[in-house]
Amino acid sequence: MTLDRFDQLALSVAMRDNLASLGYTTPTPVQSAALPPLLEGFDLIVQAQTGGGKTAAFGIGLLERLNPTLADTQSLVLCPTRELAEQVASALRRIARAIPNVKILALCGGVPVGPQIGSLEYGAQIVVGTPGRIDDLLRKGALKLDRLRALVLDEADRMLEMGFREQLSRVIAATPEHRQTLLFSATFPEQIEALSADIQREPRRITIAPEQRLETITQYKFEVDDKPSAVAALLHHYLYRDDPANAASTIVFCNTKRDCDELEQRLRSAGFSAASLHGDLDQRNRDQVLARFSNRSVLILIATDVASRGLDIKDLDAVINVDPALDPDIHLHRIGRTGRAGASGLALSLYTAREARRIEAIEARHGEIDRGPGEALRAEGRPAYAPMVTLDIDGGRKHKLRPGDIVGALTRDGALDQAQIGKIAVGEFASYVAVESKMAKRALVQIQEGRIKGRRFRARLLY
């Protein structure tokens, strides 16, 4: 069945109306291919890149097959990172607006387990979480999956790469044998094939070709000896040469945590606005780095593949591969973060003479990459400074804070104009607010010496 419109499916009227209100009119390729067999109850093994609409694909299916009159957990979605789990839960809540009395919980590590146990006492039809925390809640007896009807493994390859195989096995063992199992993965190494064979029953296989995005991405390769110097030169040549005030947001990929930290030090010492993201960061520091990059108080994010998976980063101008990806499909996943939604993107890949074979493997799989101009590696200039600074407030949703409350506190008595306030992210226990760099200290005083909803909150500036 070729699905051109959502109304071709036997969806409830409420679901169709809600999808229309959300702007879901024409299904994406993964939605068109996956929804019909999913709604029929088949197991699926789906290969699709991030950003193709797969959350809505399985979300619509889970919600249409849900019984909202039962408080039991009927669907479980497992994700490799807290960030992806929270994004999935948020997307499912938007899709579920058409269905009354549906409770969706995000259960992840990095936060206290007590409140999560309390939330589970009231029931949740859909649970979204990370394998470690779900395993922990099962062992404590706080979560029961004996009535589960559907299991989703989202970004399954990354969960295996991050060492979650043992936790996955225990979680899956706690689910009924007769369930629908949906496995989504950007790549299909042998581990994924083996996992599918162990947990699925005659799955329908769906592969969404990722090459459709490459036409919007300009790619160059550069053979170099000194990679940190080359990264700085490429930033000057391609991203900062015209107007540093409008500098681009860039993700730089390294293969190891150590390389991320060393490159961050080199770039920061040269005056660049950069921060690294990898598995050694605790959750609070990880949240801070992501908030700063998202709100443009950091312009360069240096990350490993595992740490960067599942990030919801929009309007990314460029990707720089400091190290060639170890798997050609990972290369495609990296560069596919730019050039989205019809916008143009830039992908620059560095390699040494010893790494030439990795580049050759990528080209054999995805096509030849043009060699970049030599002058790009000799570029010099003035680094771009971030236009914003992030204000970290020790208060979040658990304190009943909303973005409007924070805006009101910052603009009280004319301290700041609303135009000087950027993106606001309110988390469970902390909030991150972007303010113009020149107004950062005034914003800090405004929060520290003022009150929000009648109480004081501690705050600090993140540099």
Element layout with pairings:
Elements: H1 13-21, H2 29-39, E1 44-47, H3 54-64, E2 75-78, H4 82-95, E3 104-107, H5 114-120, E4 126-129, H6 131-139, E5 150-153, H7 156-161, H8 165-173, E6 180-185, H9 190-199, E7 204-207, E8 217-223, H10 227-239, E9 250-253, H11 257-269, E10 274-277, H12 283-294, E11 300-303, H13 305-308, E12 318-321, H14 328-335, E13 345-351, H15 356-366, E14 370-371, E15 388-393, H16 403-411, E16 421-426, E17 431-436, H17 440-449, E18 459-462
Parallel strand pairs: 1-6, 1-7, 2-4, 2-5, 3-4, 5-6, 8-13, 8-14, 9-11, 9-12, 10-11, 12-13
Antiparallel strand pairs: 15-17, 15-18, 16-17
Helix pairs in contact: 2-3, 3-4, 6-8, 14-15
Descriptive account of the structure:
The chain is of the alpha/beta class. The protein folds into three domains: 6-208, P-loop containing nucleotide triphosphate hydrolases (Rossmann fold); 211-378, P-loop containing nucleotide triphosphate hydrolases (Rossmann fold); 388-462, 2-Layer Sandwich (Alpha-Beta Plaits), CATH 3.30.70. It is 36% helix and 18% strand. It contains 17 helices and 18 strands. The chain has helices at 13-21, 29-39, 54-64, 82-95, 114-120, 131-139, 156-161, 165-173, 190-199, 227-239, 257-269, 283-294, 305-308, 328-335, 356-366, 403-411, 440-449; strands spanning 44-47, 75-78, 104-107, 126-129, 150-153, 180-185, 204-207, 217-223, 250-253, 274-277, 300-303, 318-321, 345-351, 370-371, 388-393, 421-426, 431-436, 459-462. The strands form three sheets. Strands 3-4-2-5-6-1-7 form a seven-stranded parallel β-sheet, with helices on both faces. A seven-stranded parallel β-sheet has the order 10-11-9-12-13-8-14, sandwiched between helices. It has a four-stranded antiparallel β-sheet with strand order 16-17-15-18, sandwiched between helices. β3 (104-107), α5 and β4 form a beta-alpha-beta unit. α14 crosses α15. The chain is globular. The protein starts with 12 loop residues before the first helix and ends with a strand. The relative contact order is 0.10. The mean pLDDT is 89.
